[in-house]
């Protein structure tokens, strides 16, 4: 299909949004109105109709899943090499690429490490334990606070003046030390992927000019979820040319808890007074009934921009509300229904999605799906990357590209076993701290012999020598081959066999490690998101640079989506409402429509029910043909069966469109208690 034919398929407002390329453009519209379609068509339009080089275009969104989907949609529109050098990625990958291209200006060495949340926690624990013994809660709080500051572009030097109370003052002091240590480890954390580029571009006119020459057109999906730093990144890059398109829906802002600023929609109009605001009103996704439910629900929130969505898809089926006696029955119901409905609706497994508020809700459902042998895919749950063998392999990779990565060092110095005990490591750590060196570097220092028995020094030396050797072979030629032979030489497989309860498990684990290395190799070959600022640097990139880049991309992917293979086989999709943003499915189940679950108890207490309502709105608007809402009268929480009240959001839906199956709880307490016992017994038998 030519781009002209593609354009002709869009409605006049969408066409206007695609064709408008000379100035800033905001598409503000409700769910399913074709915002993402505007972005993907516009990328093709810029390349095929305006003759813009794909290298000059950067499209960003929030989740890896959404980025992948967008990439696929664009891929079908472009021919041959048209898409070469095009950036379609998450905000964080874009930031990572800026950092990679500007290491020197940032004062980082090549092969920097990307700390995931666990690594960052470990560092915070070390820093905070210096003052007094701290617990996990305190660490989480400080971590959250530092993240909030970073998202708001508040640097360590400014944090103290923003601190509202004693706790925040303390966090501000930890923040300062934390940033200093990260830098010493040649490491960045997740939030730095946006913060560092923003500060760099803001303070360095040369660097800024270089990136402005590189990116001529930007497109941002899910704009309502940008935080202060992300908005500034867009603004800095686009301030001069003013050529960008952002699309968003204030009713789908669901990341305020992570620093998102829906008011960025308003700021955009102030910063770019000639902003062309285009509204879309036709929904192409859902039936009239589903759309009415979404509109009626969200009308309970105050609105900046009024939107009215309509659909030509017909009224469709009523929305079913299925009440279950307890959570196990709820899962049983969903699983068995999918089994029969797949045949009745002539659907595929992948046409069904089950959405829920929290990952824990998926556990019972998984058991039920397994029971019926229904294939499913869980997004964001226990992931490939959180497997121990993968964490080990990743730690080796990280240490290879950045010997100063102490967390990686500690993870694998004794994996497989090298007889290096905790006492040795503690002394080594003290010695390293004194010298301001990394653990790896400290192993090489002569003075170590005074601190440790000769045997321990020798064992440490053997380990670092081994790593150095692999590193040299990587630099000298085939990096992937060097990594593969490293795994063989240290006989990681034997270690897995020693530690697994069954040989098949060890086999599977080793297989996972090879999958990881294959992924790495593949990623080196394609380097899909490479957008170094100047073409010349890209061609000068050495082999090791590419390995380093590929490894940091792997680490980023680990953090972002915690999901290994791109799995597009036919499976029922299980995901949180947060992760479902931007996606659509023919048949959607929304589970757990109960007070304290949706809206979540924390939100009720914090007075942020509006964000929960938007979350429910996101969930409802994922459905194309049918929507089923489920709830339980009782649910286990804190080891006890608790009574659950139906969600207030159910009352806010148009009652005439709802078809109830079962009634919410209005029985006397005694009967309830008896049933509660049944439920416990049921649960026990289920869990074996
Ligand atoms: P969300 O807010 O959920 O991200 P969106 O506004 O990005 O939704 P899209 O995902 O772009 O909406 O589009 C929703 C569905 O409508 C998709 O299946 C898309 O292919 C289809 N669609 C979009 N525009 C049109 C059109 N003009 N004609 C027919 N179908 C369309
Ligand atoms: Mg979209």
Structure description:
The chain is α/β, with parallel strands linked by helices. It folds into four domains: 183 residues, Rossmann fold, CATH 3.40.50; 73 residues, Arc Repressor Mutant, subunit A (Orthogonal Bundle), CATH 1.10.10.160; 192 residues, P-loop containing nucleotide triphosphate hydrolases (Rossmann fold), CATH 3.40.50.300; 160 residues, Orthogonal Bundle (PCRA, domain 4). The protein is 54% helix and 13% strand. It contains 32 helices and 18 strands. Strands 11, 12, 13, 14, 15, 16, 17 and 18 form an eight-stranded mixed beta sheet that branches. The chain has a six-stranded parallel beta sheet with strand order 3-2-6-7-1-8. α9 runs antiparallel to α10 and α16 packs across α17. The longest helix is centred in the C-terminal third of the chain and has 24 residues. 45% of the residues are buried. It binds adenosine-5'-triphosphate and magnesium ion (MG). Magnesium ion binds next to α3. GO terms for molecular function: 3'-5' DNA helicase activity; ATP binding; ATP hydrolysis activity; single-stranded DNA binding. This is ATP-dependent DNA helicase Rep. Keywords: ATP-binding, DNA replication, DNA-binding, Helicase, Hydrolase, Isomerase, Nucleotide-binding. Homodimer. One of its GO terms (cellular component) is cytosol.
């Amino acid at each position: 299909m030519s781009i002209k034919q593609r354009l002709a398929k869009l409605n006049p407002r969408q066409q206007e949004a695609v064709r408008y390329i000379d100035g800033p453009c905001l598409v503000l519209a409700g769910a399913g109105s074709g915002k993402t379609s505007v972005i993907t068509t516009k990328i093709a339009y810029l390349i095929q109709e305006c003759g813009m080089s794909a290298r000059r275009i950067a499209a960003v969104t929030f989740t890896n899943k959404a980025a992948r989907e967008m990439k696929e949609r664009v891929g079908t529109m472009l021919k041959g090499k048209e898409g070469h050098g095009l950036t379609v990625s998450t905000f964080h990958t874009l930031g990572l690429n800026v950092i990679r291209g500007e290491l020197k200006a940032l004062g980082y060495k090549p092969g920097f490490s990307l700390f995931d949340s666990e690594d960052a926690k470990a560092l915070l624990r070390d820093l905070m334990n210096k003052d007094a013994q701290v617990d996990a809660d305190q660490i989480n709080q400080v971590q959250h606070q530092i993240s909030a500051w970073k998202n708001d572009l508040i640097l360590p030097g400014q944090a103290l003046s923003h601190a509202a109370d004693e706790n925040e003052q303390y966090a501000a002091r930890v923040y300062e030390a934390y940033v200093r240590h990260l830098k010493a480890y040649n490491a960045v954390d997740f939030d730095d992927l946006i913060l560092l580029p923003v500060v760099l571009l803001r303070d360095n006119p040369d660097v800024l000019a270089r990136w402005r020459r590189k990116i001529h057109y930007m497109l941002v999906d899910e704009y309502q979820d940008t935080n202060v730093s992300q908005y500034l990144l867009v603004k800095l890059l686009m301030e001069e040319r003013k050529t960008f398109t952002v699309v968003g829906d204030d009713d789908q802002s669901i990341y305020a808890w992570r620093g998102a600023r829906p008011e960025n929609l308003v700021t955009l109009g102030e910063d770019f007074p000639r902003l062309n605001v285009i509204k879309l009103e036709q929904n192409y996704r859902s039936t009239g009934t589903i759309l009415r439910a979404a509109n009626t629900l969200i009308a309970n929130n105050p609105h900046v921009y009024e939107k009215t969505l309509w659909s030509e898809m017909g009224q469709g089926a009523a929305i079913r509300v299925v009440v279950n006696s307890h959570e196990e029955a709820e899962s049983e119901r969903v699983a068995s229904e999918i089994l029969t409905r797949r045949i009745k609706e002539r659907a595929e497994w992948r046409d069904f999605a089950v959405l829920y508020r929290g990952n824990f809700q998926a556990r019972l459902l998984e058991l039920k799906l397994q029971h019926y042998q229904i294939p499913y895919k869980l997004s964001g749950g226990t992931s490939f990357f959180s497997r121990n063998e993968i964490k080990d392999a990743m730690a080796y990779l990280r240490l290879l590209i950045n010997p100063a990565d102490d967390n990686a060092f500690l993870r694998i110095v004794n994996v497989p076993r090298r007889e290096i005990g905790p006492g040795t490591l503690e002394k080594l750590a003290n010695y390293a701290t004194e010298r301001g060196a990394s653990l790896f570097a400290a192993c090489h220092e002569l003075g170590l012999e005074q601190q440790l028995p000769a045997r321990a020094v020798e064992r440490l030396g053997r380990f670092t020598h081994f790593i150095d050797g692999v590193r040299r072979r990587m630099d000298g030629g085939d990096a992937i081959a060097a990594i593969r032979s490293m795994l063989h030489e240290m006989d990681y497989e034997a270690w897995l066999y020693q530690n697994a309860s069954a040989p098949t498990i060890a086999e599977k684990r080793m297989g996972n490690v090879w999958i990881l290395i294959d992924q790495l190799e593949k990623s080196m070959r394609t380097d899909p998101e490479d957008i170094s600022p100047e073409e010349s640097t890209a061609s000068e990139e050495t082999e090791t640079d590419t390995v380093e880049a590929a490894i940091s991309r792997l680490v980023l992917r680990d953090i972002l989506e915690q999901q290994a293979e791109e799995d597009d086989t036919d499976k029922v999709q299980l995901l949180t409402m947060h992760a479902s943003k931007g996606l659509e499915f023919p048949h959607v189940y929304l589970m757990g429509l109960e007070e304290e679950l949706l809206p979540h108890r924390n939100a009720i207490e914090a007075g942020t029910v509006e964000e929960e309502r938007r979350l429910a709105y996101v969930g409802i608007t994922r459905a194309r043909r049918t929507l089923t809402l489920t709830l339980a009268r009782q649910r286990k929480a804190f080891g006890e069966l608790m009574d659950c009240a139906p969600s207030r959001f159910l009352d806010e839906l148009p009652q005439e469109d709802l078809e109830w199956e079962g009634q919410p709880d209005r029985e006397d307490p005694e009967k309830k208690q008896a049933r509660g016992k049944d439920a416990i017994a049921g649960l026990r038998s289920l869990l074996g």
